[in-house]
Design goal:
Layout lengths: L13 H7 L10 H11 L12 H6 L5 H15 L3 H21 L4 H10 L3 E6 L2 E6 L8 E4 L8 E13 L1 H4 L5 E2 L17 E2 L4 E13 L5 H11 L6 H31 L4 H15 L4 H18 L2 E3 L4 H7 L2 E4 L1 H5 L5 E7 L2 E5 L10 E3 L2 E2 L6 H12 L4 E4 L5 E4 L2 H12 L9 E5 L7 E7 L4 E7 L1 H7 E6 L2 E4 L2 H13 L3 E10 L15 E10 L4 H12 L3 E5 L4 H11 L8 E2 H5 L3 H10 L2 E3 L3 H13 L4 E5 L5 H6 L2 E5 L5 H6 L2 E3 L5 H40 L8 H13 L29 H27 L4 H23 L15 H19 L1 H7 L10 H28 L2
Parallel strand pairs: 9-23, 9-26, 19-22, 23-25, 24-25, 26-27, 27-28
Antiparallel strand pairs: 1-2, 1-3, 3-7, 4-5, 4-6, 4-7, 8-28, 10-11, 10-22, 11-12, 12-13, 14-15, 16-17, 17-18, 18-21, 19-20, 21-22
Helix pairs in contact: 4-5, 4-10, 6-8, 9-10, 10-25, 10-26, 11-25, 12-25, 14-15, 18-25, 21-22, 25-26, 25-27, 25-28, 26-28, 27-28, 27-31, 28-29, 28-31, 29-30
């Protein structure tokens, strides 16, 4: 028997669903039919992704143009018999690859974690018998039994519901458990509103029910998310894009320059071809900043450590820098901007309105009347209202070992228990005689309580239902005629604030009534008042969003919750104006261009599906925004992976979300994102300072070699000496720049553009200026020493020292791109002085250690010879500071 594909199951009546699935609402499927469907449709499992061999992953880190050039240089030097030089060059390439490999994370783990979410067992009816089976053995048409605590094993169409409520926040973003019905819904109903469906991986929080399996494995909603994650391509960070482009340009320039210099030397200068080739290889090695990839990784790793101290766990190194470039943060609401803990914020009785302080399930807080703490003993109606919410309640609160409060039972009832504790009312120990549980058909709960002279029925539930049954309003001095219009206005008022409204009432009955039935409360009840409940914003998120705005970062709320709630929470947080918002069904009607316009224009999106979140992030990226996406539910995972940087909540976030993210917030604190952005901007500024510091070393060496070939002079440095200069500056003094403080005003400037080149025109000028300054000065110094009769070995050693010592002085220039070196923060970075000391020690070793002399071809020099590199280094420092002062004056002139 064929089952129709792509059927809109939630739009069909229960009987039609049973017929379409060729199942039975009493006996379920037969064993023979189950076997047939297993063979035809397969098991209820998610597809396995292909694993990449770790060796292939490792060699994938050699896909860099600069590394290819280094390999070529290593092969040629080995061919020419310079085996030591060849090994050193190869070692540098392998070290860079090892660093990248160790920092890489396995994307497949996110898919594995989704599989762990699936229920392992399922209760079904087959052949008319109740059976427990393995979840993978479920087939379409199976009749599944649902009970409290069960994890839903597949996507189901509910055909029977007895007060069935299912927790779906991780999938839909809905902060409250979904009350399940069996009636058919409109074909345009969004995912979060499909109340006659139960979805795989969600959990039953209350009630019981029966459901027919309508989708298994990859066809379930969780399976579709799995597919979305696997199809999302990994995003290349701005830094990787910039360094890749930079590497291509540098490689092209180096190769062209090397070829031209070789041709010139071969035809116009009297060089031996092998010696000339070795000199050109020296030029290649000199020009390539081979230490730059490693030093960038180390600086990023230091940023990772700093962020970890601020509760932001980075899972991928370049994400540190990406944070500094983020221009828009797309945030889930429930559990991210809000606490995901229902809280009573407003109480309404006939005499007026009362507000409550405190958020979440913690019983800390007060009831206020015009900012004055209320004594409930003086407000009898208010006390009765709170008593009703407490008595007519099946949930409880408990405090864990870490001091966090949790609800056992329904989240809304947990909020009402917290309200009772805040009220400081002494609990009366009256006997509960009978209870009518909450039922989605009747929309209320009632409890019969024994008193001395009479009994009382307390009722809580949907306000509109209680209004239909009400006879009187309770007043402080007695009763008044029931004013339905008054209460309807109050309900509307609370709803527009995004609050879920719960009503309370009571009815006095005779002492001899000891059981309770629905007929006992259908009329004649006394209406007490209302409670407005909301999942409150995180206190720290409001300040964090303000700081984001100051830093030029737009925050957008993308949630599966209701639009009124989203508007109200958004306005309270500082996102949007409380009016402008779109729903998922609005987005469904848009073409691609309209979708991109809406993604840019609107800041609040409600009733969205995982596909909507993914499309919104993609649309923003198409408009040139560097986007971050935060979230904690499974439904956020595809968008987190697609975003330039995905940010997951560490405490309440699912494992799937964490593994799809680039960053995990250890404290679930939205404000930690602001701290991470601050750290990201500091890291990027320090990366630029490092590049500004390192590249003049390569430029100066290249200038020396080119000038020597052009003027047919002796080589000022050997290739291995060049590598020493490059690496010793990378592994020592350049590291110090990673510890520089945040630049003043860094969090008050807009995010940098995504297409901003790594080297600005000023950076190019500065690198060329310092390169020519150091290279030209060193060449002049070398010629001066040769003319004075110094041997070539001594000249090469002094040249090596001059380049390194000058770079040490230049380090102090580079601590601030434009600012004066000797400022109030001069001594704040102790690492600068520590690494300078290490560098001096290494330079002494390479000069006076026989082993180092043998490896690098250096010789000992006299104490008086040190005056040359030290004096020249100081001169370069002064000249660069003068250049910076001139540039500051030009900047000031431009701002006039």
């Amino acid at each position: 028997m064929e089952i129709k594909e792509n059927e809109v199951w939630y739009a069909l009546e229960a009987n039609s669903v049973i017929d379409s699935l060729h199942s039975d609402e009493v006996a379920g499927l037969s064993s023979a039919e189950v076997q047939s469907r297993l063979e035809k449709y397969g098991k209820n499992v998610l597809p396995q992704g292909k694993k990449t061999n770790p060796i292939i992953k490792f060699f994938g880190h050699f896909k860099d143009v600069l590394i290819y050039v280094l390999f070529a240089a290593s092969i040629i030097t080995a061919y020419l018999g310079q085996y030591l030089d060849s090994c050193v060059i190869l070692a540098v390439a392998f070290i860079n690859a090892a660093i990248g490999f160790m920092q890489e994370h396995k994307a497949e783990k996110a898919l594995d974690d989704i599989k762990k979410l699936l229920s392992l067992k399922a209760q079904v009816i087959r052949d008319g018998q109740r059976q427990e089976i393995e979840s993978p053995d479920l087939v379409v048409g199976d009749l599944v039994i649902l009970a409290p605590g069960d994890k839903v094993p597949a996507d189901l169409r509910i055909i029977k519901s007895d007060n069935l409520r299912i927790e779906e926040s991780a999938l839909t973003g809905e902060s409250l458990p979904s009350e399940k019905i069996i009636e058919a819904l409109d074909t345009n109903t969004m995912l979060g509103d499909r109340t006659n469906m139960a979805f795989s991986s969600t959990s039953v929080s209350a009630g019981t029910g029966l459901g027919l399996v309508i989708a298994v494995g990859k066809d379930t909603e969780i399976g579709k998310i799995n597919t979305l994650i696997s199809e999302v391509e990994d995003i290349t960070t701005p830094l990787i894009k910039q360094t890749a482009q930079f590497g291509k340009i540098v490689s092209l320039v180096i190769i062209c320059l090397s070829v031209l210099i070789y041709i010139f030397g071969y035809f116009y200068r009297d060089y031996d071809p092998a010696d000339l080739l070795l000199a050109v290889i020296g030029l290649t090695v000199a020009a390539i900043p081979e230490g730059l990839p490693a030093i960038l990784s180390i600086i990023l790793a230091i940023g990772v450590q700093n962020m970890a101290k601020r509760n932001a766990i980075i899972r991928h190194l370049p994400s540190v820098e990406t944070l500094g470039a983020v221009s828009v943060i797309c945030s889930d609401k429930t559990g991210t901007l809000t606490k995901n803990e229902m809280t009573v914020k407003t109480l309404e009785i006939r005499e007026g309105e009362f507000l409550l302080t405190g958020d979440g399930y913690s019983p800390e807080g007060n009831i206020l009347d015009e900012e004055k703490i209320v004594d409930t003993a003086c407000e009898p109606v208010l006390k009765t209202l709170i008593d009703c919410f407490s008595i007519c309640n099946e949930s409880s609160l408990h405090k864990d070992e870490e001091g966090e409060w949790h609800v056992i039972g329904d989240p809304t009832e947990g909020a009402l228990i917290s309200l009772f504790e805040k009220s400081k009312i002494v609990r009366d120990k009256h006997k509960r005689l009978s209870t009518i549980p909450f039922d989605s058909q009747y929309k209320y709960m009632a409890t019969l309580v024994e008193y001395d002279k009479h009994n009382v029925i307390y009722i809580k539930g949907a306000p509109d239902r209680l209004l239909d049954m009400a006879l009187q309003d309770k007043m402080r001095d007695g009763y008044s005629d029931f004013d339905r219009h008054y209460w309807e206005n109050k309900i509307t008022e609370l709803a527009t604030k995004g609050q879920r409204v719960i009503g309370a009432a009571y009815k006095i009955v005779d002492k001899n009534i000891s059981t309770l039935d629905h007929s006992d409360v259908q009329e004649g009840i006394v209406f007490l008042g209302l409670a407005g409940i909301i999942d409150p914003p995180r206190e720290e998120a409001i300040e964090a969003i303000r700081m984001c705005a100051q830093a030029g970062i737009t925050v957008k709320m993308i949630t599966g919750d209701h639009i009124d709630t989203a508007r109200a929470i958004g306005k309270e947080l500082g996102i949007g104006d409380g009016i402008k918002a779109l729903q998922g069904k609005d987005l469904e009607k848009m073409d691609d261009a309209q979708f991109e316009d809406a993604a840019q224009e609107y800041n609040i999106f409600a009733r969205t599906s995982p596909e909507h979140k993914l499309k919104l992030v993609t649309a923003l990226q198409k408009r040139g925004f560097i986007s971050a996406m935060t979230g904690d539910g499974v439904n956020d995972a595809p968008a987190l992976k697609k975003a330039d940087i995905g940010i997951a909540m560490g405490i309440k976030g699912t494992e799937v979300t964490k593994d799809a993210a680039e960053m995990v917030l250890a404290d679930d604190n939205f404000s930690t994102i602001v701290a991470a952005v601050e750290e990201g901007r500091r890291v990027y500024d320090n990366l630029k300072k490092t590049i500004l510091f390192i590249l003049p070393t390569n430029g100066a060496e290249s200038f020396l070699i080119i000038a020597s070939i052009l003027f047919q002079k002796s080589m000022p440095l050997t290739p291995v000496q060049i590598l020493w200069v490059n690496m010793v500056t990378s592994i020592t003094i350049s590291l110090a720049l990673a510890f520089e403080k945040l630049e003043p005003g860094a969090m008050k400037r807009p995010p940098r553009a995504a297409n901003l080149p790594l080297l600005s025109p000023y950076f190019i000028w500065r690198i060329l200026f310092v390169s020519v300054l150091i290279g030209g000065g060193t060449l002049f110094l070398g010629e001066h020493l040769i003319n004075k009769g110094f041997s070539l070995d001594i000249v090469q050693t002094i040249t090596l020292q001059t380049l390194v010592i000058t770079q040490m002085f230049h380090l102090f220039n580079s601590r601030s791109i434009r600012g004066f070196a000797f400022n109030k923060d001069f001594f704040t970075n102790k690492a600068v002085f520590a690494v300078s000391g290490i560098l001096i020690l290494l330079q002494v070793l390479i000069t006076y250690s026989p082993a180092m002399n043998s490896i690098f071809g250096t010789v000992s020099i006299s104490a008086s010879d040190w005056i040359y590199p030290i004096t020249f280094g100081f001169i370069v420092f002064v000249i660069v500071e003068i250049e910076k002062a001139i540039m500051r004056q030009i900047d000031a002139w431009k701002m006039r």
